[in-house]
Amino acid sequence: MKKVNIIDEIFEAFQINGDQLYEGGEQVTQQQHALQTAHAAEKDGAHDTLIAAAILHDYGHLAHDIPQEIVAQGIDDKHEELVAALLDPYFVPAVTEPARLHVPAKRYLCAVEPSYFSKLSPVSVRSLERQGGPLTEAEVRAFESLPHFADAVRLRRYDEMGKDPDAVTPDLVYYRPCLEAGLKS
Predict the structure, then answer these.
(1) The domain 3-181 belongs to what CATH superfamily?
(2) Cα within 13 Å of Cα(81), Cβ side
(3) Is the pLDDT of residue 81 over 80?
(4) pTM for the full predicted model
């Protein structure tokens, strides 16, 4: 796989698997969720690399071969680790690290902002359990020391906004410049 072709490969994965319903019963597709998350980031004034991370944060769901039924039964597919492993060779850490950290960011927010839990969809509540629940105090301190933790927290907030089956967003091609801006030189 050549670096110059990775964006085309990502677009192809969205074309092939993007119409699958998002994890565990949300009423949006994988592609709708990615686009809504990116659109929330863009409306918030996020930089291009964070918008790219928003598009790619759940790319692991599109790239693995674990059936959705298995995930729905409570098995953690570790999609956040898979996305980082797949995309680290091509994208700068400002893209891959917030994507990799978006699951710990949910656990972090549940630990430091008790009201955040009430913003989670029922599917996110169920996945929180299998992902380890809220972080402990020591885990919170460790998470806050990571270089991209603040962007991971922002991405997590956008993630929760990306679950409206009726939302209208730009298409994937619109966000191609953001993905290109996140490529390694």
Answers:
(1) Hypothetical protein af1432 (1.10.3210.10)
(2) 4
(3) no
(4) 0.88
